[in-house]
Amino acid sequence: MTIISRIPGLGGWSDDPLWASFYDWTVEHPHLGGAIWAAGLQSNLRRLYDAAHELSLLAPGSRVLDVPCGGGVALRGLTPGQGVDYVAADIAQAMLDRTMDAARERRLDDQVTPRIADVGDLPFAGESFDMVVSFTGLHCFPDPAAAVVEMVRVLKPGGVISGSALLNDSGLIHEPIRRVGRVAGLLGPGCTGTEIVHWLAAQGVDVELVRSGAIGYFRGVKRATA
Ligand SMILES: C[S@@+](CC[C@H](N)C(=O)[O-])C[C@H]1O[C@@H](n2cnc3c(N)ncnc32)[C@H](O)[C@@H]1O
Fold first, then answer.
1. Please, are residues 65 and 87 in contact by the beta-carbon 8 Å criterion?
2. How far is the centre of ligand 1, averaged over its atoms, from the C-alpha of 157 (Å)?
3. What DSSP string runs through 16-27?
4. Residue 200 is part of a domain; what is its CATH number?
5. What's the CA gap between 192 and 97, in Å, rounded?
6. Number of domains forming the structure of the chain
7. Is there an atom of ligand 1 within 6 Å of 148 CB?
8. 14, 75, 174, 185 - which has most CB atoms within 10 Å?
9. pLDDT digits 0-9 by tens, 115-158
10. Which of 13, 25, 73 to mutate to test the pocket of ligand 1 (most atoms within 8 A of CB)?
11. Which domain holds residue 108?
C-alpha cells in the first residue's frame, strides 16, 4: 500500500476515493466537466457520449456488458423501455451503487443488472454478449492485454466492442496524470493506441481507433471466424 492510499479520501478504486467522485462528476457535466477534460486531457468529452449513443441502436433482447461501468456514464446511450439486458460490471461495489442510482434516475433500472467482476476473469460464458462497452477503462486495469482477451471472449461473433482509454503515447504533457494515477493505485500500466489495435486484432476483431487528445476511442467487430 502506498503512502497516498493511506490518506483519507484517496486510495484505490475499491476504497471509493475522492478522485472517483470527482471523475464521475466531470463525465456527467458536459459543460464544466467538458472544460476540465479539454484543459487536462485535450479531449472532447462529447466523444464519449457519441460512443455511448451506439447503445441506443440495440434491438430489444440484446445483451450488453459494460465493464467497467464506473458511475454509469454509458447508460446515457440507453432509452427507457428499449428492452436491453444490460450487465453493469465493476470491481468496486461503490461504483455499482452509483450506476444503479443513475439507472433509476434515467428510468432504466428494469434493464440493468449490477455485477461485481474483475475484468481479468469475467464470470460470464464465452460468446454471451451482443455488445461489450469499456469506456475509460483499459488504463485502470492491472493487465490491459488480458482484459482485452476476456472482453472479446464473452463477445458473440459479429458483436461490437467499443471503448476508450487514456493512452500512454499521448505525449509528455499527460505524463503527470499517468504517474500520479499510478502512484495513487488508480491506474495500471496503461497502453498505447497501437497496442490496443494489436491486442484486439489478435483476438479476431476488426478495429479502428480514433484519438481525442489523451484519450483513444476504439470500436471493432468480432469476426465470425475468430
Ligand atoms: C475511470 S473509471 C471509468 C468508468 C466508466 N466506464 C466511465 O467511463 O466513466 C474506471 C473504473 O474501473 C474500475 N476497475 C478498476 N479495475 C478493475 C478491474 N480489474 N475490473 C473491473 N473494474 C475495474 C474502477 O472501479 C472504476 O469504476
1. yes
2. 25
3. --HHHHHHHHHH
4. 3.40.50.150
5. 31
6. 1
7. no
8. 75
9. 999 999 999 999 999 999 999 999 999 999 999 999 999 999 99
10. 13
11. 4-222
